[in-house]
Amino acid sequence: MPQDFEASLCQPTTSVPAPTPAPSNSSCSSYTEAQHLAVVGIMFTAQTLLGVGAVPIQPFGISYIDDFAHNSNSPLYLGILFAVTMMGPGLAYGLGGLMLRLYVDIDRMPEGGISLTSKDPRWVGAWWLGFLVSAGAVALAAVPYFFFPREMPKEKHELRFRQRALAATASSVSKGEDSPAEQTPGESQEKQDGLTQIAPDLTVIQFIKVFPRVLLRTLRHPIFLLVVLSQVCMSSTVAGMATFLPKFLERQFSVTASYANLLIGCLSIPSAIVGIVVGGILVKRFHLGPMRCGALCLLGALFCLLLSLPLFFMGCSTHEIAGITRQPGNLPGPELFPACTEPCSCPLDDFNPVCDPRTHVEYLTPCQAGCTGRLVQEALDKSQVFYTNCSCIVGGGPVPAGACDSACSHLVLPFMLLVSLGAALASLTHTPSFILILRGVKKEDKTLAVGIQFMLLRVLAWMPSPVLHGSAIDTTCVHWAQSCGRRAVCRYYDHDLLRNRFVGLQFFFKMGSLACFALILVILRQQDKEEGTQVTVSTSGLQQQLLASGPGKKPEESRV
Hints:
membrane; Growth Hormone, Chain: A; 18 helices; 3-stranded antiparallel sheet; transmembrane; mainly alpha; Solute carrier organic anion transporter family member; single chain
């Protein structure tokens, strides 16, 4: 409002009215804090409901697809499921970018608009509007689930396999043939898996009895544990990026919140979707077994890590802010003009930045730049505010309202392209890593294993990762705003430190994922060697048995 801009000007000490404590006390009262806590509680409840509602799709939907689809088609179906799931955040980033261009109080917007642009640090977009749209879409998308059949029809190949398993079991029971001692391990396991899938569901009491045993058996599986740990590292990277990448782009490259969200929604998310689909197609097309799935995951994680290295060098230092940061060899206004703000009475908690375009020095308020006049330049779609008669600036101004632009704003597109390529390569490992779990655990443990996996991802990645990234970003702050005598929002960051710690944390998690996939490949190779040794021993034993049986006996009588 106009009075807000007038209050930021340099005014003589005698003409400044005495501050009234009532508004400050009312804004810092315990009632206001209780209201804020209530809003946070509502947000937590909404997130909990979203988590409960997502369970039928992931994780249960993953096991559901793998149970009723043919083994060769399952990777492609899972890749499509994961890709469609990623489309949601992509659309949300795009939709959020459009809505953040609207001011937060769209119902109370003054008739003439406000003298703020979306690049102003004080701009708050309509963040709440996206929740209404997405919540309505979720409610509509839930309706078709009511019409799903109680039993999903199996795919033809899978159905024939189970019928053969039933027929073989029935014939062995009725004729007394093929006793367990006579069956090969492969035949016995195949029939057991076939029976497991068509067995009736356990009751709740039976499930509670067997749950601890199945849980321990699943957690002792080395491949399962390593795959989950690698996905925890990768999910930690994704959680940090999804939460703080828009903020990082705003601070590092001086782009608006809406443009940052549009970049992520148009570049990173589609790249991740392509990576997931390509991973599923590769597994299906080349019939990749566990060993090759592990090798594909290792290569994807390795190239994703290599693409992270240039990100450390794509950025520049924080521009000079009078009274906070200082560039070597450059004198800001208060040092160039000593005592230029002495006649002013500048409020300490005010924030209305202005930028001197000649020296690229930023001031927290027009008052700290010694400005006494204000000029509004009207345009067709927006108005630009300038401040004049500034005693701390060469020539007295005018200086435009708003923060100084970054000298590295041209690097935002190359930065996002590297991030998007890294996201595509990381997503390439998504479907193969799930196949490693689905093919590695017992069929009857599959649903529980995927459920445990998602629980561990939530607890070890999606919950702590944003906290870790937020804490690391907070340590790079060079100027904190104060509210009610306490530290509030960070106004300025050390850009070099911010970039090194944010990208460094991402690099650390990608290294952890790469190490886990390397260990998985080592274990799979060891298992292959052991299986090869067992096959050699059993073959030599069979040859000795055939020689000992004599030439008169037929080979059919000596079955294994």
